[in-house]
Amino acid sequence: VCCALIAGTIGTLIGYAVAKNRRSRWASYVNGVAFLPYLMPSIAVGAAFFILFSNEKINLFNTYTLLIIAGTIKYIPFASRSALNSMLQISNEIEEAAIIDGCSSLRVLLQVMLPLSKPMLATTALLCARYVWNEMMFALCFIETTAIKTIPVGLLALKGQESGEWSVLVAGLALSTIPIVILYLIFQKQLVRGMMMGSVKG
What we know:
- The structure is a single chain.
- This protein has 11 helices and no strands.
- The chain starts with a helix and ends with a helix.
- The model has no long low-confidence stretch (mean pLDDT 81).
- The protein has helices at 2-20, 25-35, 42-53, 64-88, 92-100, 105-133, 137-142, 151-157, 166-176, 178-186, 188-199.
- Helices cover 74% and strands 0% of the residues.
């Protein structure tokens, strides 16, 4: 949830900044840099985080903090791209009318762009939460203590090389889907509206 909220917030700010200055060279540069983590394999990103945050000065190894940082950075490109596509579908006349009425850029974002983009942003946050919930690579790299291991890593421990507790594993898989299913049920209207919003333009 923390990763989804933080990545969604940062992605929204990046998407709005790029959409507002879409003809600027800097906007294209920021958009390209924000998309860079998607071009790198997870194991390479995990190794970089391990080197940066597992040393004498900054030791976040074996903590949820490192998982949140890594997950947030990994899914910022997805969130920023979704926010950008959503805000590009909003007519410029709406933003210009708000500016003429005396709204600042921050007020335009909070009171105009975000309400109009709410379905798409809710869909983005929900998908980010699902991806983070199923993330295994970072949890395997950064977590050693059994008590704080994530559910995917815990389920992996139930399967041996040649045998495993299949009944317990299947039960655990079923239980692990409950939080995501609950989120989908709560935000199903925003999810459907967000998908419809992204499928057509105009």
